[in-house]
Amino acid sequence: MSRTATVERNTKETQIKVELDLDGTGAGEVSTGIGFFDHMLTHLAKHGALNLMVTCKGDLEVDAHHTVEDVGIAIGRAIAQALGDKTGLTRYGFSTIPMDDALVMTALDISGRGSLTYEWTIAKEMVGAFDSELAPEFFKSVCANAGINAHIRQLDGSNAHHVIEATFKSFARALREAVSADPRAHGVPSTKGTL
Length: 195
Fold this sequence. Notes:
Blueprint: E1 4-10, E2 14-21, E3 28-31, H1 35-48, E4 51-58, H2 65-83, E5 92-99, E6 102-109, E7 115-119, E8 126-127, E9 130-131, H3 134-146, E10 149-156, H4 160-178
Parallel strand pairs: 3-4, 7-10
Antiparallel strand pairs: 1-2, 2-4, 5-6, 6-10, 8-9
C-alpha cells in the first residue's frame, strides 16, 4: 500500500505545497526562502528516510514565523494522511542524536493526540535568517496536525546550530521508527482498536 500524501495550504500569509512518501529513500527538495530551515527539512527527509518535497512562498517581509508554522501544519497533515488507518504501525519511536557538543533525545507516540513537550536552552537568537524560537513552533505544528505525542529534550550542548540540527535529526530518526511497519502487528496498535 502506498503511504504518500500531497497537501496544499494557501492563506493570505503563505502558499505551500508538500509531497510526502513515508517509505522513501531520504530525498528532499525544499524551498521556503529560509536557508537554514530548508537545510533542517532536508535532514528531516534524509534521516527519516522520507521523500519530502516542500515549496513555500511566505510573507518573509514580516518575519519567518508564518512560513515555519504553516510548513509544520502542512507536513503534519501530510504525515496523518499518509499513515491512513495506522494498521500494522510500529507507533512508537525513540532516538538520541549527538552532534558535536549537542545531544538531543526524542520519543514519539503516534497516538492520534497531538502534543509537544520540550526542553531546549538555545542561547543564540538567530541562526542565519532562522529565529531559534521557531524550532518548537515547527514541531508543535507538526505534532498537532499529525496526531503525534512528542517529547524532545536537549541533554547537552550550547551551539544553537548544533542543538537545532540534532533536534531535527533526532525527531527524524524517531519518526522513521514510529511510522515503520511492524511485521508482528495485527490491526491497529491499540487496545482501543483505533488511534
